[in-house]
Amino acid sequence: MDTAWDGPKVAAAIEATGRKKLILAGVSLEVCAAFPAITAIGKGYEGYVPVDACGTLSQTNHEAGLIWVQQAGGDLHRKSTR
Fold this sequence. Notes:
The chain is of the alpha/beta class. 46% of the residues lie in helices and 13% in strands. The protein contains three helices and three strands.
């Protein structure tokens, strides 16, 4: 899976912040937000995905992205539930 984390400059910049909680959103939830969130969680970060801030290519892809993030241990948030 290719994400921004694969770029050493991006990973180093995130690590340099010293923060462990990341908010990840994207044009396509199932790719732009889910894959980086899954990678971040695997590296010991807490991944938060604001669902309302993400787009999608199809409802099926959107639902798959939600499942992937949840299975990886990420937190999903909606404006309507906060």
